[in-house]
Fold this protein.
Amino acid sequence: MLQKEPFIVRVAVPSPLRRTFDYRVPEHLVSDAGIGALKPGCRVAVDFGRRNVVGLVLDLGSNSELALEKLKPITAIIDSTPLLPPPLFKLFIWAANYYQYPIGEALFTALPVLLRKGKLPPAQTALHWTLSELGYGLGPDSLNRAPKQKALIKLIQNHSGALAESEILALFSRSIINQLQQKALIKSVEIKPVEDSPTDDILKQASLTLDKQQQAALDSIDLHSFNCYLLDGVTSSGKTEIYLQSIEKTLRYGRQSIVLIPEISLTPQTEKRFRDRFNVPVVTLHSGLTDKQRLKAWEQARLGQAKIILGTRSAIFTPLKKPGLIVLDEEHDQSYKQQEGFRYSARDLAVIRGQQENIPVILGSATPSLESLNNCAQGRYVHLLLNSRAGNAVAPDWNLVDLRSESVECGIAGSTLEAIGRTLKAQQQVLVFLNRRGFAPALLCHFCGWTAQCTDCDTKLTVHRARGRLICHHCDYQQRQPNRCPQCKSQQLMATGDGTERSEDYLQKHFPQHRVIRVDRDSTRKKGAMQQFFDTADSGKPCILIGTQMLAKGHHFANVTLVAILDADSGLLSADFRGHERMGQLLTQVAGRSGRGEVPGQVLVQTHQPQHPLLDMLISQDYRYTAKQLLAQRKNLQLPPFKAMALLRAESTRAQQAHEFLCMARSVAEQLIVAYNGVELLGPLPALMEKRAGRYRYIVQIEAENRAALQELLRALASQLDTQKKFSGVRWSLDVDPQEL
Ligand code: ADP
Ligand code: ZN
Ligand code: ZN
């Protein structure tokens, strides 16, 4: 029970300070709302510095490190019941600790904006009309001259005397309601929607009959307690069908499911499959929502009205009244890790949340991350395998195109062009993959060798010919495409290299009778462009789809039978230790778009390095084999997941300042690590892109054999760095389990 006096609350406020603040609850507030009402997870208003801000109560108690007289009073209690259910609240605290991020900021970045501002959740009642006593007493022959009014009275009667206004307005005009109200035959009341209990018609569409492997996988999933399952199924093996059937079972015992996918706008087909299958309320949470829409969806999930919550990364923080299942599709996808601010991994938090809520977590992918595969090998996750494609589809056939012995135009080899022609002629579709948008990745002066560079980043500007501009793909700096070389005034400027725009032009000229549709961030800027793309692909008519990795995202086009990967070499050179893993995933995912229907598919991989071991493994074996080899390499080199890693990042407009900050930080860390075994420091090193958007970026890499030791060290380091005042121009942050260097 709570103490009577003094009454103190520990509050998280949105502030970059890594701590919480104690406040006193003044007596008049205690008596107004009752002490019992104030619980962890309720919002309060407090004076903080010179502002009055919204804070979240973390704890209640009767003592504080500060003297009672020094504590400020809270100024208002906003919620009478906790906004966040306790397990979710615990998840935030866990995440803030693990990712070394201030708890107040963590909590507030994940709340809908309107709640952050102190607004109350929208009322969840709906206006209903009921019969008055007079209305109930109406004789059978009254209102004969007002047939509409009579019909409405009858309708309300048939609905046990109360009907939602929205339902009435679907059939009657507002004036009929008004007329009955004036006659005092009906009156309005606010009614909470009843939570519907599971019924037999949960399904709008029958589920498919699973094949043997699918059935075995589904049967292995225990829906009544926590476990993490890695559903490792080749592309088009029917993973989504397993998600759907797991959700169906979860619905049948009255529980909600969260489904996370990398990007909703790119995969409307996925959303459609969930909505088409079930007869229950589905809400989607993504960046395209207005603040109001977001709050409404969030609230529907919190109150248990929405049964399926489909969302991107941050949807992992959606409160659920009756949590039952978490599904995370394409678990290898990088978008699950937030790359700035609160740098959490939604995939890893999904597992923690599952544990805390005691519900199962299904991670699915055709190309699982090495982390998850290692977790299976260690017995932490249950490994479920689907080895063949669902239905009649078979795995596509891979072939290398050796660019050294071919003539190449606009990125396309002669033999690839012939294969494209043959496919179109056979009335099938082609998908061409090139992970470089724009017309050409560089503008070069043929006369003096000048190239157009971004002034703010370490990178070349990309030529966007259709728009007549040079654009930096890292900071979005733009300029008009010059006619003359700014260095020697020559007019011999050449756009060198190939981007999707150039290859599109070339293919369209070569196959004028067929549609060529480009999909990249430029082409999809226009509203409806993505829809047009899907419509064309779904029509099944022969065409060429050309694009960047946007094309690799889980799409299902039944009539694509040829996939051409124009440049496999770019990924082979990566300096990041995850480079080969990423490359293997990307190529396998793109290739997986081929031959998903009746006709077997083919994949052509263009390369200058046909002997490269990575390509060889992927083609002569498969992703699973390749991943095993890569994991063995990581073990030999003692890299993640065999070590815990964190980065201390620092950036500044002045290179020297950022560097000096990290030298200081490193010496602080060196003193701290004496207390731990097996912690190593590396750096300061330049980040992979040293200069971006006008800021110079450096890192210190911290590796540890033991995760707990790393956590302790980082906490101590952060609190010491927080007190450094000398480096005001430096922004620094900690990145735990970094995904890019
Ligand atoms: P994945 O999610 O593994 O890429 P999908 O679930 O999208 O695979 O399945 C690929 C295709 O196979 C879809 O068109 C789907 O409807 C179909 N499919 C899945 N399972 C079955 C099954 N058991 N029987 C027949 N078709 C299936
Ligand atoms: Zn020049
Ligand atoms: Zn730039």
Remarks:
- The chain has a mean pLDDT of 89.
